[in-house]
Amino acid sequence: xxxxxxxxxxxxxxDACIAKILAMSGLQVAEHDLVQKLLADxxxxxxxxxxxSTSVRPDHATSQLLRVWxxxxxxxxxxxxxxxxxxxxxxxxxxxxxxxxxRSIPRGLVRRGALLQDQLYHRKWQQPQGWAGQESxxxxxxxxxxxxxxxxxxxxxxxxxxRELAPEGNWSFIEDRVNPPxxxxxxxxxxxxxxxxxxxxxxxxxxLGASPGGWTWxxxxxxxxxxxxDRTSELHPAVRERIESAHQGxxxxxxxxxxxxxxxxxxxxxxxxxxxLRLIEELRERNQRFVITVKFKGVPEDRDIERLxxxxxxxxxxxxxxxxxxxxxxxxxDRT
Length: 336
Ligand SMILES: C[S@@+](CC[C@H](N)C(=O)[O-])C[C@H]1O[C@@H](n2cnc3c(N)ncnc32)[C@H](O)[C@@H]1O
Prior knowledge:
Elements: E1 6-8, H1 14-25, H2 33-45, E2 47-49, H3 70-73, E3 78-81, H4 85-96, E4 100-104, H5 110-120, H6 134-141, E5 144-150, E6 155-159, H7 185-194, E7 204-208, H8 214-221, E8 225-230, H9 237-240, E9 245-248, E10 264-267, H10 273-285, E11 290-295, H11 302-312, E12 317-320, E13 328-333
Parallel strand pairs: 4-5, 7-8, 7-10, 8-9, 10-11
Antiparallel strand pairs: 1-2, 3-6, 5-6, 11-13, 12-13
Helix pairs in contact: 4-5, 7-8
């Protein structure tokens, strides 16, 4: 588990609050020894540990809910009692300055949250869109963000320093329904926002399992020079015209790769996880930056990610199940 956010409570309803937050997050408290233990510690210390997921999908394993909401909420979350929505609005507006966007987290008292958000509203919370280039990051970074959720009609959990660009890990982009040759492009968009380091304009990228060309399209739009390799030759004409060259071959047979030095290798081939793992090991040995999706038969669990990272035993390699990953996880190495 990553960091745990802890805030002090001044009165006796801490355990009720915790139970409420856990209930809202969908956690079955009784099932989890870990949660029980954390609760016991926090209640004992009269502190509140906010357990929440930063990347929850309805089909996520329950264990994945054991993430920490504080990752979103930042270090300055508070729980305050307000007699009315107006009183809450005044307090939050005091914090606002003119450049803060407030967002109601859609949990708990959703309608009440929406009412408060409407009263604070001056600009819509924008989801990120497209590749996480410098320009789009700057655009989003222009505004401070605050977020809140009603724990009950009087108590508001709120933070004027909300860190996440996609609250609760929901990276639902404003989609481009016209240009990308496949919807797989969303995985790469999301990964670009979540990785600290990613291909940049002018980089040479080898895109494995590229057809029909969703990832290729993303890379081209980011200004990369792309060479593709796929078992088939069914690359969409819109990307075929813009790439350096297209090759047919087996992604797992490195001797069939086109010659070249690559700033990045990307791979979205459907294969047994062991094969993808072997490829990852080879790329790692070559000190080759990569991003690869590793496919599973069903929904991967946290322990699948842990097992994979344990097997690789390399701090440079990172793995995450993205919002747009279904039966797969995304693995990457961005430092060599
Ligand atoms: C999920 S699709 C890739 C989607 C693509 N990344 C996109 O964004 O449109 C998987 C691709 O991997 C290719 N493929 C499967 N096994 C392969 C292999 N061993 N070597 C190369 N390509 C392979 C398939 O032909 C298919 O085009």
